[in-house]
Amino acid sequence: MSNQEFIPPLLPLDFDFETTKIFKKTISANKELAKLNGISKIIPNSEILINSLVLQEAKDSSEIENIITTHDELYKAELRTSTISNEAKEVQNYKEALLKGFNLIEESELL
Question: What is the per-residue pLDDT across 2-23, written as a single tens digit (0 to 9) for each?
Answer without folding.
Answer: 678 888 888 877 766 677 888 8
